[in-house]
Amino acid sequence: MENDNIVYVGRKNTMAYVMAVMMQMNQGNTEVTIKARGKSISRACDVSEITKNKFMNKIKTDNIRIYTEEIQNENNEPLKLSSIEILMKKIE
């Protein structure tokens, strides 16, 4: 999968990310990955469910990956951050 098929969820309105997922699917992609870290994880779950249940009934949640990333903060100290990847696929 290329990076074109990834929607990074952050602080914007949930519907902005729902529209991004729908645009990716409508451009001919058969799968889209929704990624989020930290406090945005719940918003990524909302994006997945809203897209699937309200707008596109021909997609499914294919895989969910939950993991911890270790990054550096401003003081170069290690910081552990929860992350999620939700793989959405078109149903043929």
What does this structure look like?
With 92 residues, the protein is α+β, with helices and mostly antiparallel strands. It has a single domain (3-90), classed as Alba-like domain (Translation Initiation Factor IF3), CATH 3.30.110.20. It has 2 helices and 4 strands. Strand 3 (59-72) and strand 4 (78-90) form a beta hairpin. Helix 1 crosses helix 2. The longest helix has 15 residues, at 41-55. The protein starts with 5 loop residues before the first strand and ends with a strand. The mean pLDDT is 93.
Condensed summary:
By secondary structure, the chain is an alpha+beta fold.
Overview features:
92 residues; alpha+beta; Translation Initiation Factor IF3; 2 helices; 4 strands; 30% helix; elongated
CATH superfamily (homologous) name = Alba-like domain
Terminus-to-terminus distance: 18 Å
Described by the principal axes of the CA atoms, the overall outline is elongated
SSE topology string: EHEHEE
CATH architecture: 2-Layer Sandwich
- How are the strands of the biggest sheet laid out side by side? 1-2-4-3
Strand content: 35-45%
Estimated structural class: alpha+beta
Assembly level: single chain
Count of DSSP strands? 4
Count of separate DSSP helical elements: 2
Helicity range of the residues? 25-40%
CATH topology: Translation Initiation Factor IF3
Radius of gyration based on Cα positions: 14 Å
Q: Average pLDDT across residues?
A: 93
The CATH class assignment is: Alpha Beta
Biggest β-sheet description: 4 strands, mixed
